[in-house]
């Protein structure tokens, strides 16, 4: 029995307590008997219930009452009475009004529920990340020290006898959805389970959990719980946008466990970060003399959930800002371990049903931009997918594409069902169905994001791709942003889609308005066109002319991508720019990026700069041999195979691994229509042509496996497919050095063939 995904630093495995007297504080009847663990079903914020009583029942038998809370008695002490199943008072949890710290006091009671003697106290660390007891003694008078690591908002955690790391676990808190024997429809979303093993006083555990639940609730700003805050009065004007966030931060400043204002002041500064929404861009590429601008995104309402989305978005932006104060920086890891962040995530999760579709999509995007990996973030994203998939015909194309990209970035596909095509997952199937239904209303940016989402999901859907690209062709005459152009070219390159109409139109727009693009965007365009084998010498000259004044501003990664694009395109000039980029990459002393290093190594070999920058290549190969992550990257190994063969590196484990990856990929592509077409041409006779000896297919020639090899004439024929991550430039240079003749068939030549005879 048990719960999953605990917040504790070590796994919680409950076992029976052999020494009953050691953990008995209340009556013996509350000690869990031998056999199964006790499972109590509790309501979050139990002391905020309405009515005269609330019953705590057995999770496996809702008709079996275990404890009761008989109302909320308000006076200066704000005390809460806990009773047994028959309604007899057991103890009272009190919180003195004027206390300096935030501790809960547990008192024994008389028959009327009035407090008599203090039994023990429950306190928590700053941020409510851990809990502890004070002055706790067993019924025999022996001292007991309990420690906990719980989050009721996250519905996770546990309680230990002694230290958390080495002590005996005596209780566990979890969400009903993680309990393996639980049926979801029978539980409310705000309920949680408390598991207690045999030999442990269940009343003692319940007292600690309820006391901490009250502390956690008080540490949560009332604004987060949907109630009015103390700083807002009936006379206060309604707050909107940044002012609302300012007020939220002030409220946090008045609450225990707050984020310091100095740490998160950036939350209230400026507008929220832009989502992955190209249709909100106003900088467009002119199609004619008339300037056209797209409509801005609708302003967010100043409701609680919309501002919570703003807070999450600004949190993501804040963590990416450099710190110069010398204080400990906020990082995704630090944020994910903060109890207040858990409260924020679970508050959002519990209120998603209230959100409109726009806020839902923007929230999904904001969560992605946090770049935080934690169970709370995963739960929130799964919950967003769950809520979204229930909103058929209710999400606009713009919001649908944002939502799809965000879910794909988090690898959320939804649970597979028999009704989803190919068991894609409910979220993927929902996005697909809604996209097909609304495709005629999709704008350019939404088409880009939709295809990018399916790429990230790893779903190949030829029907959807063809329909989306047909829609793109229909709206090519609309005003496009620079981001639109960059995005669609990247997607086409990743998909290996040789759509001449779209590519030519985008190239016309790009080269007509190169001044409109940033250097990074121009690098991306160069890289995409090179992968599509659509980058000629004239295009390279124009692109470099626009980028040359700002080459020194390129990041190391962009420098590597540009150098790789130039090598992939097959151009031979300008040589001086090749040298500048190589020297610039080598001079930047930063942490090594293996994939960027391999791109540069392949480019240096292709551009015949390997002798001049051999020290760079040696350093790259040394890093690669020590990086085990490369073993799982097929594309990196394919590039590395060319480099190792070009340099004549002696055979070792790295070279054998790279050669095996290249061979496997070559065999996979041998089933392509282009390969079959060429093989068919070699096998059939043509009028006026001498009998041709059939070449060997997938032949081992030198250090490579080539597409076709005519052994009699030592002729190597390779197909340059856009689905292959590199060109044959380095490979053919190496083969020519070994005495072979080489022929390269361009993908565009193959595409434009009208008959098989033209191939000869």
Automatic annotation (TrEMBL):
<dbReference type="Pfam" id="PF04525">
    <property type="entry name" value="LOR"/>
</dbReference>
<protein>
    <submittedName>
        <fullName>Uncharacterized protein</fullName>
    </submittedName>
</protein>
<comment type="similarity">
    <text>Belongs to the LOR family.</text>
</comment>
<dbReference type="InterPro" id="IPR025659">
    <property type="entry name" value="Tubby-like_C"/>
</dbReference>
<dbReference type="InterPro" id="IPR038595">
    <property type="entry name" value="LOR_sf"/>
</dbReference>
<dbReference type="InterPro" id="IPR007612">
    <property type="entry name" value="LOR"/>
</dbReference>
């Amino acid at each position: 029995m048990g719960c999953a995904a605990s917040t504790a630093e070590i796994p919680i495995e409950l076992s029976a307590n052999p020494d009953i007297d050691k953990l008995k504080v209340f009556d013996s009847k509350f000690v869990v008997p031998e056999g199964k663990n006790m499972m109590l079903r509790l309501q979050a914020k139990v002391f905020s219930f309405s009515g005269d009583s609330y019953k705590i029942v057995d999770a496996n038998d809702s008709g079996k009452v275990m404890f009761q809370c008989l109302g909320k008695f308000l006076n200066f002490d704000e005390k809460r009475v806990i009773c047994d199943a028959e309604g007899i008072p057991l103890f009272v949890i009190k919180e003195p009004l004027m206390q300096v710290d935030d501790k809960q006091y547990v008192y024994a009671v008389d028959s009327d529920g009035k407090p008599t003697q203090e039994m023990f106290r429950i306190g928590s660390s700053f941020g409510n990340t851990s809990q502890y007891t004070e002055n706790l003694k067993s019924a025999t008078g022996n001292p007991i020290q309990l420690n906990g690591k719980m989050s009721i908002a996250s519905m996770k955690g546990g309680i230990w006898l002694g230290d958390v790391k080495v002590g005996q676990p005596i209780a566990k808190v979890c969400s009903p959805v993680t309990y393996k024997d639980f049926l979801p429809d029978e539980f409310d979303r705000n309920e949680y389970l408390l598991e207690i093993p045999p030999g442990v006083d269940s009343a003692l555990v319940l007292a600690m959990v309820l006391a901490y639940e009250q502390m956690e609730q008080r540490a949560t700003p009332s604004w987060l719980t949907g109630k009015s805050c103390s700083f807002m009065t009936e006379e206060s004007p309604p707050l909107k946008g940044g002012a609302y966030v300012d007020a939220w931060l002030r409220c946090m400043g008045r609450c225990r466990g707050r984020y310091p204002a100095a740490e998160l002041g950036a939350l209230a500064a400026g507008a929220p970060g832009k989502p992955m929404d190209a249709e909100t861009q106003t900088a467009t590429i002119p199609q004619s003399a008339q300037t056209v601008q797209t409509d801005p995104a609708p302003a967010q309402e100043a409701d609680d959930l919309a501002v919570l989305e703003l807070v999450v978005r600004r949190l993501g932006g804040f963590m990416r800002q450099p710190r110069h104060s010398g204080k400990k920086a906020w990082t995704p890891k630090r944020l994910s371990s903060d109890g207040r962040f858990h409260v924020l995530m679970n508050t959002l999760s519990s209120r998603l049903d209230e959100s409109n579709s726009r806020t839902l999509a923007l929230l999904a995007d904001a969560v992605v931009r946090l770049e935080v990996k934690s169970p709370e973030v995963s739960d929130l994203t799964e919950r967003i997918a769950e809520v979204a998939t229930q909103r058929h015909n209710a999400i606009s194309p713009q919001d649908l594409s944002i939502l799809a990209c965000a879910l794909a970035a988090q690898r959320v596909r939804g649970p597979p069902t028999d009704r989803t095509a190919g068991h894609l997952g409910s979220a993927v199937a929902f996005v697909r169905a809604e996209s097909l239904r609304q495709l005629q209303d999709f704008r350019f940016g939404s088409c880009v994001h939709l295809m990018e989402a399916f790429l990230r999901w790893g779903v190949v859907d030829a029907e959807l791709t063809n329909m989306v690209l047909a829609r793109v062709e229909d709206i090519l005459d609309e005003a496009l942003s620079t981001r639109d152009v960059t995005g669609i070219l990247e997607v086409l390159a990743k998909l290996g889609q040789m759509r001449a109409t779209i590519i030519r139109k985008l190239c016309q727009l790009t080269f007509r308005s190169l001044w409109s693009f940033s250097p990074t965007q121009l690098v991306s365009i160069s890289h995409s066109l090179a992968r599509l084998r659509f980058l000629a010498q004239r295009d390279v000259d124009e692109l470099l002319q626009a980028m040359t004044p700002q080459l020194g501003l390129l990041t190391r990664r962009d420098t590597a991508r540009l150098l790789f694009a130039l090598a992939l395109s097959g151009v031979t000039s300008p040589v001086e720019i090749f040298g500048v980029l190589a020297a610039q990459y080598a001079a930047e002393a930063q942490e090594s990026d293996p994939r960027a290093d391999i791109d540069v190594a392949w480019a240096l070999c292709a551009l015949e700069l390997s002798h001049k920058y051999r020290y760079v290549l040696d350093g790259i190969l040394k890093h690669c041999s020590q990086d085990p992550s490369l073993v799982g990257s097929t594309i990196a190994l394919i590039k590395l195979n060319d480099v190792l063969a070009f340099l004549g590196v002696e055979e070792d484990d790295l070279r054998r691994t790279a050669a095996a990856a290249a061979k496997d990929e070559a065999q996979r592509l041998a089933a392509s229509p282009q390969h079959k077409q060429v093989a068919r041409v070699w096998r059939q006779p043509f009028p006026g042509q001498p009998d041709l000896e059939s070449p060997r297919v997938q032949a081992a020639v030198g250090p490579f496996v080539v597409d076709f090899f005519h052994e009699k004439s030592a002729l190597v024929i390779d197909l340059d497919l856009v689905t292959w991550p590199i060109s044959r430039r380095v490979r053919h240079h190496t083969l020519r050095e070994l005495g072979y003749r080489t022929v390269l068939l361009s993908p565009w030549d193959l595409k434009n063939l009208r008959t098989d005879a033209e191939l000869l």
